[in-house]
Cobalt ECF transporter T component CbiQ
Amino acid sequence: MGAGHAHKLYRHGHSPVHALPPHTKLAAVFAFVIVVVSTPREAMWAFGLYAVLLAVVACVARVPAGFLLKRLLIEVPFVAFAVLMPFVAEGERVEVLGMSLSVSGLWGAWNVLAKGTLGVAASVLLASTTELRALLLGLQRLKLPPLLVQIASFMIRYGDVITDEMRRMRIARESRGFEARGLRHWGVLGKSAGALFIRSYERGERVHLAMVSRGYAGSMPVIDEVTASRAQWSYALALPFAALVVCLLGWSL
């Protein structure tokens, strides 16, 4: 998998959550999201308990609330979609603050907001306590198809390479006095995008040739064999098991 690879979502720490093997955390988050999605939307109290469970995990992981909330902004497009649902959905209507809203749309908006926010929060906690390289190793350990793991690995690394190249090109334009202020500058930006594509393609070809010359035959060597003890699995699965209890109560009450 190569050398360590840091990302902006990761928050360095030495908490018990950081120390858990990556594949246990991946399995725990996946199971937690499945449980949350399976919860009936009418059991509003259950989603409050799920949020409390995630808050406990964040405290154990020593992830500040501000750090978590700032990264939850990624779900803004889903929030916008949810806000529109009561206005465009059909069915029984109800008056709220002088506006006619769909009852089914209100429930749908709540369903999207509650489950989406909890899923994003769980994913952010996973990313903030696990390095990208460890996540890829965890996917390997969970027997995800090797080709998909390689594609994800290359995508992550080339994403950073392209971002750095874009930054250098922007600095080069600005050092020559260029500032994009209107439509007349779109031609320059289009040429820059074309040059970026060509450079990225050429770099990909060079990297592939370098890998083949070093013995690459379609699979990446496993450098670190990540294992987990029964106790570590128990710690990691405590979150989805607690959520499962809440879900069952939500269906029975």
About this structure: DSSP finds ten helices and two strands in the chain.
